[in-house]
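We treat protein structure as text, and this decision shapes the records that our systems exchange. Below, we set out a record of this kind in full and without editing:

***
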Amino acid sequence: MCVSSDDCSGTAICDEGVCWGDPPDTTSFAAVLIPPADRPELALTELTDISIAADGQISGLQFGPTISLHGRIILGCAVDQQEGCGNAAPVPGQVLVERVSSFRGGPQYRRSVLTNPGVGVEEDTFSISLPADDAEYRVTFVADESSLESLALGGTQVQAPPFSTTIRASGDLAVVWEIGKPEQLKSIEGCVTSATGNGSNFEGMRVSALGRWSLLDKPTRASSVVTTDSEGCFNLKVPIDMLDEFDIIAKPGPGKTLPTLRLSGELVVDPSIDKPGLVHTIAPLLMPNAPNPVQFKLPLRGASGAGALEPVSGATVVFETSFALPVPDERNIEVSFSTQVVSNGLGEDDPGVVEVDLYPGSADLNRSYRVRVLPPPDSEYASVFDAVVEVGTGEGAPVLGSLDLQRRIAVTGAFTTADGKALVDTPLTVRPSALLRLQASTSERAMLDNLQFPSDLTGENGEFLVWLDAALVGLMARYDFELAPPDFSSAPRWSFESVSLANPSSPAGSLDFGSMPLPPASYARGLVRDLQGQVVVGAEVRWFQVPTVEACESVGEPGSAEPCLLPARLLGLWESDEAGEVIAVLPDP
């Protein structure tokens, strides 16, 4: 790239053929240092005071002082319980420690570790290093449900509801947390039954509760998952420390086709001193009156490039419907049925056909299903988010009318460096844009999170091809095109943000962006060190561009104390080498 510093622009200097320095002067940076696996005493560290000198030297890449959060998580004992609990019964599960990021738009600070229940009775079952930043952290423990059976006594199902607390990272913390201790919990009991009072058909349903630790939290798991007994009844344990409103959800067990019942906003008061064993009993949850499920077939077809209809294979198809309650109920109860299947492959019988068990309609009224169709990310056929399919009685030939899919838009272009060289073998990842996510509702964002999006590897001329939906979850689609050039390209990581597919000059069904140059690169380097000043080998540096206050306020409320709604842009992922040095390639638009 250079022979002497005269070949470099601005303040950059030439060293070993590379122009180092002349960093971007209008960008606010932050970084996250992730320690290597062999340095557990180091904590994941957020850096907001890093700087790049005119000659490209990075200062401030240092892990800071840490505190240790460590201890044991054990199964709490009841008053009359003598064995199978206490210090001899460590609970397997995950410890999650989190807080908001220390820089605008940054990813939530999050560290997690699995407990090790196989250690001795005096040893820690978990340990996490955290920055000694005197910040408040939320710590949540969720037990491994599949391993709780090993703690059961005499066939009794062990319940270890989630546990949550806050800590302040001002010094080392040694803890012993008892999970599922009776005085920490309150009981919710009820039954799933039919309108005639017969619950035997609903044995083995999986019942759990959702709750909130605070008004600002999203609903989260509040109980272990229990199964209904031979009478369809259950008993849940939920933490007293949670808010008093819970949602109770009863889902069918494995291999069973049944609706899901959800009772929302159930007020469960805390036990009192004079009533310590108070059990909250809910009125029976009634299953709807419905005929047995019937297998239906739904053909999926899509128009080929020549216009002919052909089967769409490998598409994920979700069917959803709701049921009326069998008797009036003043409570907020939703009875729904959802199932997910994949359309037959081209090498199978009935290619492109969905074979699915559904609750049929009646002789008087069809049953309406909301249907989502999600073809594979590399498919030419468009997703469907809001189709309605009417289902009859299922008598005769239970084949539903075909569902015809539109074509996705064929998006092409060619990525180049700032000086026009083709970006060869460069991974391209496509994601919904941050602005699209802001437009979407909570349920729509959850749907976006579960979608798969295409990726590509550029060709010898930097060319790419991806098939994209023109609309997502009912909204006009906008995408971020994220590029992570390989080291040999000398190009920076870059994202073309909020790319719209609306272009009236493009032919229907296609969109060519032509040449898409990345911005010039600025090269910087620095050493990653620990608190003692020793270099750290194998540390990962995640480099972010922090959104401006003005940009944050443009999509939120001016002057708001809420976190920035725009995410910080990830500019690079680099690892320190054997000398502890990180070489950063930054965009300089």
User: Anything to note?
Assistant: The two ends are 18 Å apart (CA to CA). The chain has a mean pLDDT of 91. Residues 5-63+528-587 form one domain.
